[in-house]
Amino acid sequence: MLPARLRPGRLLAAAAPRRLPGPRGAAAGAGGGREGVRRAEQAHKVAASYKPSKFDKKILLWTGRFKTEDEIPPRIPPEMLDRARNKARVKACYIMIGLSIVACFAVIASAKKAAARHESLTSWNLAKKAKWRKEAALAAESKTN
Over the stretch 121-133, which tens digit does the pLDDT of each residue have? Predict the structure, then answer.
């Protein structure tokens, strides 16, 4: 029997040129480089696999993805819903920012009116404490009688 290094199959395998591994997901030697990557990406994509709930449908309508609820297909890709949710989050943040600015101006206006009437938190606090003292004095007086 011949030693392992002298076997004919071994010699032919050693003489054949070796191919370097391509990018991940590429076809192994078809030479289609980019085409192999596309095929691998398509194999991992799950198209139209999510059934939207009523709330999801409202989000899709509010973000402008669909015009009416009848246009929404029974199954949608998860990526579409993710994009719609992100857009809805941004819209909600803009609405909250606007409401906060309006509330700030409302507080400023009411504070100016209260200052014109000579009302302040200090005067309210002093009046409240005077009322408590008076009630405490009446309670102590009623206990002694």
Answer: 888 899 999 999 9
What phi and psi values does residue 76 have, to the nearest 5 degrees?
-130, 160
User: If DSSP codes are grouped into helix, strand and coil, which group holds residue 118?
Assistant: coil
- Burial (0-12, 13-18, 19+ Cβ within 10 Å), 47: exposed
pLDDT of residue 132: 96
- Which residue has 């809805």 as its token pair? 88
Do residues 55 and 79 make contact, with C-beta atoms less than 8 angstroms apart? no
With tokens 């857009």, the residue in question is 87
Residues sharing a CB contact under 8 Å with residue 39, sequence separation 6 or more, in sequence order: 27
For residue 3 the two structure tokens come to 């030693």
Spell out a b/e string for 84-105, using b for 16 or more CB atoms within 10 Å of the CB, else e.
beebeeeeeeeeeeeeeeeeee
Contact criterion met (CB below 8 Å) for 22 and 36: yes
Task: Look at the pTM and tell me if it is higher than 0.70.
Answer: no
Give the other-Cβ count within 10 Å of 38's Cβ: 14
Cα–Cα distances in angstroms (integers) from residue 40 to residues 26, 33, 43, 44, 100, in the given order: 7, 11, 5, 7, 48
